[in-house]
Amino acid sequence: MVYEIKKYGEECLGKECVPVEKITEETLKILEDMVETMHEANGVGLAAPQVGINERYFVIDIGDGVVRKIINPEILEYSEEFTETDEGCLSVPGIYKKVKRAYEIKVKYLNENGEEKEETMTGFLAKAFQHEFDHLSGTLFIERISPVAKRLISQKLKQLKKETMKEHKNLNK
Ligand SMILES: [Zn+2]
Fold first, then answer.
1. Residue 68 falls within a domain, yes or no?
2. How do the pLDDT tens digits run along the chain, 173 residues long?
3. What's the pTM?
4. Known catalytic residue: 132?
5. How far is CA 63 from the centre of its chain?
6. How far is the CA of 134 from the centre of ligand 1 (A)?
7. How far apart are CA 120 and CA 149, in angstroms?
8. Structural domain total, the chain
9. How many Å lie between the centroid of ligand 1 and the Cα of residue 4?
């Protein structure tokens, strides 16, 4: 099943998410559907709040042959070295801006089998992980861009929010 992706302006995108206490059949089905949704939208990552679920998990596929399902993630260490490259988000369509991210991170999470994993990630994978991780505390990448860039997109964001609200109203009729 392909989810409808929540867009900028929806309340669920700004909320703190709660940890998963038990990985159930339902959790696994949601993760599977999130992967399908991400692929259909040509995204490299999708977090649960982007499909209206405020729980701590996300999926990542950076095209390296591994589809990652990440549950209850923690970032244990950030490198001082950083990258600053364009980022976009399926929930903020049409906007791409530079975001500073740690080049390397050490992370801990549960995979879909409930196994605890510890991993060091670098480059694009680290960047994707940090972007999705932010979603779980209700933070969008546009909150991490420079003040100048923020000013430049403020009109576009207003417009986007208006459209989201209009769609929202229509859906709830
Ligand atoms: Zn995003």
1. yes
2. 999 999 999 999 999 999 999 999 999 999 999 999 999 999 999 999 999 999 999 999 999 999 999 999 999 999 999 999 999 999 999 999 999 999 999 999 999 999 999 999 999 999 999 999 999 999 999 999 999 999 999 999 999 999 999 987 777 66
3. 0.96
4. yes
5. 16
6. 8
7. 31
8. 1
9. 14
**Ligand 1 centre distance from Cα of residue 45 (Å):** 7
Q: Which of 10, 55, 87, 132 is catalytic?
A: 132
User: What is the end-to-end Cα distance of the chain in Å, rounded?
Assistant: 23
- 145 sits in the region (left: phi over 0; alpha: psi -120 to 50; else beta) called beta
CATH of the domain at 53: 3.90.45.10
Asked if residue 136 belongs to a domain, the reply is: yes
User: Residue 24 has what pLDDT?
Assistant: 97
Q: Give the integer Cα–Cα distance in Å for 40 and 173.
A: 27
> Is residue 5 situated within a structural domain?
no
Helices (H), the chain: 25-40, 123-135, 147-171
Pairing of β 104-110 and β 97-102: unpaired
In the block, tokens 């909320």 appear at 15
Residues 71, 110 contacting (CB under 8 angstroms): yes
Structural domain for 113, as ranges: 11-171
